[in-house]
Amino acid sequence: MIDVPLSVLDLAPVAAGASSGDALRATTALARRTEELGYHRFWVAEHHNMPGIASSAPAVLIAHLAANTATIRVGSGGVMLPNHAPLVVAEQFGTLEALHPGRIDLGIGRAPGTDQLTALALRRTMEGLSAEAFPQELQALIGYFAGDESLRITATPGRGDMPAIWLLGSSGFSAQLAGLLGLPFSFAHHFSAANTDAALALYRTHFRPSQWLAKPYVMVAVNAICAETDERAEALSWPGILSFLRLRQGRPGPLPTPDEAAAYPYSDLELEFARERRVGQAMGSPETVRRLLEQLLERTGADELMLTTQVYDLADRIRSFELIAEQVAGGLRRDG
């Protein structure tokens, strides 16, 4: 059985024929159910200018999710810091931590999570959009929580209300920075599987003990679709694959229906993309998912796994997490 904590990353997917409100209500229902099942944390991701993702305002959504749950940790996977002034993020997440003490995670990324035009619309200036400014902006953000007097501004809420801060990454830059600062690190294996081993090695090599951590702490995010059979999980996976394919082609849209995904005329190149997309992920029956997650744990030495499940129907999404909790993790409330 999987013997590390399991958590959830959700993108509030907007399914074809549904509204953003439908997507957000589905995410709320999923948060409640995964809390009942014993999952450790529930994160939502910041994306913009994407018709198929409704989690564009994570702080607002996290406030709603935290108010509709009681024990599960709730946070961002992540807030894309180049899109925001550090003071604004400190005030938003300071407010969340003040309202829900001990339950809020602030996962931070250095990519914009969107295209440059949209990033410019968010920030309203080219200054700060470069990743080169990220370490300084991260230090400022931490400084607002810590009450750094050199900043000459008091974040209220913020000062004294520091959530758990994580760095997120899909390459080596954030891995190395997380290590140097002694922060926990979450790697986006779900869309950057080829970089996982190198990034985790960098994090562990550069880790310095800090006020937050005495030793490295790694969480690996992985695509996971669990169904009664491998064949059923395979069928459920195609809407998410087609959605990601269209995103890479510059044609983002709502999450396709299973029928649309099955009828799509995939080229050989697109089928190869789909095959590569599955490498290192966990899709199949409970037995298959357990084996694949155990292999990932052995390979990465992760302290925690974060599962993300892009399927069209909410009932299938919930069922996947139920099967993993009951048959893969051996009952999260016991082992998690």
> Which value, in Å, is the CA radius of gyration?
19 Å
Helix content: 40-55%
CATH fold node name = TIM Barrel
Q: What is the H/E string? A: EHEHEHEHHEHEHEHHHEHEHH
Give the N-to-C terminal Cα separation.
Answer: 10 Å
CATH class: Alpha Beta
Q: Structural class, from secondary structure content?
A: alpha/beta
Give average pLDDT, whole number. Answer: 94
Count of discrete domains: 1
Low-confidence stretches are none
CATH superfamily: Luciferase-like domain
* Main sheet: strand order: 1-2-3-4-5-6-7-9
| Overall 3D form | globular
**How many helix segments?**
13
Pfam families: Bac_luciferase
Protein name: LLM class flavin-dependent oxidoreductase
Family: To bacterial alkanal monooxygenase alpha and beta chains.
Domain Luciferase-like: 8-303
Task: Considering the chains and any ligands shown, give keywords for the structure.
336 residues; alpha/beta; TIM Barrel; 46% helix
In short:
The protein is an alpha/beta fold.
Question: Could you please describe the fold and organization of this structure?
Answer:
This protein has helices spanning 20-37, 58-67, 86-99, 116-123, 134-146, 172-181, 196-206, 230-248, 258-263, 268-278, 286-300, 314-328, 332-335; strands at 6-10, 41-44, 73-80, 104-109, 164-169, 185-187, 218-226, 282-284, 304-308. The longest helix is centred in the last third of the chain and has 19 residues, at 230-248. Helix 2 (58-67) links the parallel strand 2 (41-44) and strand 3 (73-80). It has 336 residues and is α/β, with parallel strands linked by helices. The protein has one domain (6-335): Luciferase-like domain (TIM Barrel), CATH 3.20.20. It has an 8-stranded parallel beta barrel with strand order 1-2-3-4-5-6-7-9, surrounded by 8 helices. Helix 1 (20-37) runs parallel beside helix 12 (314-328), helix 6 (172-181) packs parallel to helix 7 (196-206) and helix 11 (286-300) crosses helix 12. It has 13 helices and 9 strands. Helix content is 46%, strand content 15%. Residues 8-303 form the Luciferase-like domain. Pfam families: Bac_luciferase (PF00296). To bacterial alkanal monooxygenase alpha and beta chains.
